[in-house]
Amino acid sequence: MNLRTVLVLGASLAALVAAPTDAQQAPPPTVLTTHPLRGGAYWISGGRSNSNFIVGDKGVIVIDAQTTPGDARLLLSEIAKVTPKPVNMIVLTHGDPDHIGGLPAFPVGLEIIAHENVRATVLVADADPNAPPLYKPLFRLLATKYLPTHMISSGESTTLDGVRVQLIHTAPAHTNGDVVVYLPAQKIVFGGDILLQQTDPYPVVHIGGSSAGWIQCVKAILALDADIFVSGHGGVMSRAQVEAQLREVEQRRTQIQAMVVAGKSLADVETALPEPGANPMFADFNHTVYDEIEKGDPPSVPPWVNLIHH
Q1: What's the gap between Cα 201 and its chain centre?
Q2: Residue 281 DSSP code
């Protein structure tokens, strides 16, 4: 893990577990807004990541738990404005802290549905003595009280509290544990961080994920009968927007592949194909694709490195 990774890791995780020491350091208060979609499904914006919920027959199905317990309590307040029904299960689209850090605000014993690699990441991060200390309080609590209780490997079609749902894992994409939630009756896809709205048109791919897998996954999403695509960060996307991003990503990956085959260096790629809107927290898309094509699949690494790419 290089110095840049350590610095970024510390800065991003401090917000999860450290309280500000004075008003100047305090982040702006989280203000969540609930947006009705259709058929009892809702999207909640305003947090560090999006959450969603579906009102079922007896309770509420939450998709992604926010970043902190405080933000998750705001999420629960938003749900209470819509329905008095209790939350009876949570689906996690992946295991990044900004999507699972709010789990301690929910009752212990709640059904938690996630990809099997999310459970593995939590357990390994909790058990490893070399894990960065900022992770320890969160993952200790998750490992003891909030492990997934229902695990997905490749995917399944099911009914959750009267709601028809498809839980889809196509390939490692944003992470190695992505789950797309599809509501066929409502024609809605909750894509987690596979779908992002940001300045950079290219996806964020953590170690353990794959740009080729991202393309495969988005093609599977577009094969669904859906017209509402909810992103993990940003807003709701149309089918045309998702299609346009897929075209952009496929074109860029093909360009990088041709340069690798021609013996070009990563510096050559960065010069020929600048990526000015890349998220500075993560390796840019050019770097990600270049390494995949030049070096093959990334080596096995401690799970926290999956969360902060370097």
Answers
A1: 16
A2: T
Which pLDDT score, from 0 to 100, does residue 130 have?
Answer: 77
Cα angle for residues 159, 186, 224 (degrees, 5° grid): 85
* Cβ-contact 197, 204 below 8 angstroms: no
The amino acid present at 39, given as its one-letter code, is: G
Read off the pLDDT of residues 55-79 as tens digits, 9 standing for 90 and up.
999 999 999 999 999 999 999 999 9
Helices and strands in the chain: count of H runs, count of E runs: 10, 13
In this structure, what are the phi and psi dihedrals at residue 180, rounded to the nearest 5 degrees?
Answer: -95, 135
Ordered DSSP codes for 215-259? HHHHHHHHTSS-SEEE-SBS-EE-HHHHHHHHHHHHHHHHHHHHH
303 neighbors 130 (Cβ within 8 angstroms): no
Q: How many CB atoms lie within 10 A of CB 210?
A: 23
Give the 3-state secondary structure of residue 293: helix
Coil vs helix vs strand at 261: helix
Quote the radius of gyration of the chain (alpha carbons, Å). 19
DSSP conformation class of 208? T
Would you call 310 exposed, middle or buried from its count of C-beta atoms within 10 A (0-12, 13-18, 19+)? Answer: middle
Global confidence as pTM: 0.89
54 pairs with which residues across the strands? Answer: 41, 61
